[in-house]
């Protein structure tokens, strides 16, 4: 009986150990009065991380659009307000854009994320211990992870509020560029997400990143035209050609003249997509020196992005059909073995059925070689899990304990 009790004690699974450690961590945090501590693997933290990723994607899409397109519209509104003749007439066109209000709310969400980071546990690498002390958590976040902390602070500051009513439009544009520091979160997310087994999701993520890159290039292409426009003696940028094509020329005394924002964005996006994919229809051409230089860089970047995405897509497709190809090769080997040794049809059928049954259960995975990579205690847990249904249905083990199985 003593030996059986000792065997039961030694057979405690690592999963149960982790659960006990988790319970102890929670209990100790409550005893010390450490309320509002968030476990790094809790459901709330997992959901919040996805919310932050969505906010980062929002920033990566809206911020370049705001800098390139909306800032230009804001400057036009300012010019309208400086003239008494146009102030009252264009009153409805000088209001704050709704995206600016949403952007301020997103800024506060990132500030809240920093507060959550100061209350989220982490695992100490040296001892694999879950740290729940607020002081140690703050020290780890500020000192040990100072790069992430600096990027979070830089990206979370509400620059729209800090510069509201003050500063030039160029200063506000530069300040909004600081928000792009949030994209460092997306880099870490993509790096970890590529390790996931959901290859279809990885493929979708790659296509999404390509679309975001095209959006960025479209915003930069428009921003170049805005910067070069006032210095051109002869108006021949792509915006001027677009205005002539749509019969909406830019007028000196009318700051709201020219093509609308939707037409300008779609045209810039069309140019960006044709440049990145190296298609080049020629409908929208680079005319000024700045536009030509950017066109060259965009084609080089497009070649790199296309090669990277194509290589990743090829790897994903190969992995998706890797099991099917292995099954075909092994089936062909069995058929060749049957033909070479002239095995009877009855025995050959039994061999094929046995092979299909074995593949259905194992999917071609060598269980013995995989089990050998784990410690003996984990091997016992794995074997117990794999044979759980058989043991539960066997009357002999009906009242047996976990230690008896092992």
From TrEMBL:
One of its GO terms (biological process) is regulation of membrane potential. It comes from the Eukaryota. It is found in: Membrane. Gene3D superfamilies: 1.10.1200.260, 1.10.287.70, Jelly Rolls. One of its GO terms (cellular component) is plasma membrane. Residues 47-322 form the Ion transport domain. The chain crosses the membrane at residues 50-70, 96-118, 201-227, 265-284, 296-321. One of its GO terms (molecular function) is inward rectifier potassium channel activity. Coiled coil: none annotated. It is a multi-pass membrane protein. Keywords: Membrane, Transmembrane, Transmembrane helix. PANTHER family: GH12235P, VOLTAGE AND LIGAND GATED POTASSIUM CHANNEL. This is Ion transport domain-containing protein. The lineage of its organism: Eukaryota, Metazoa, Spiralia, Gnathifera, Rotifera.
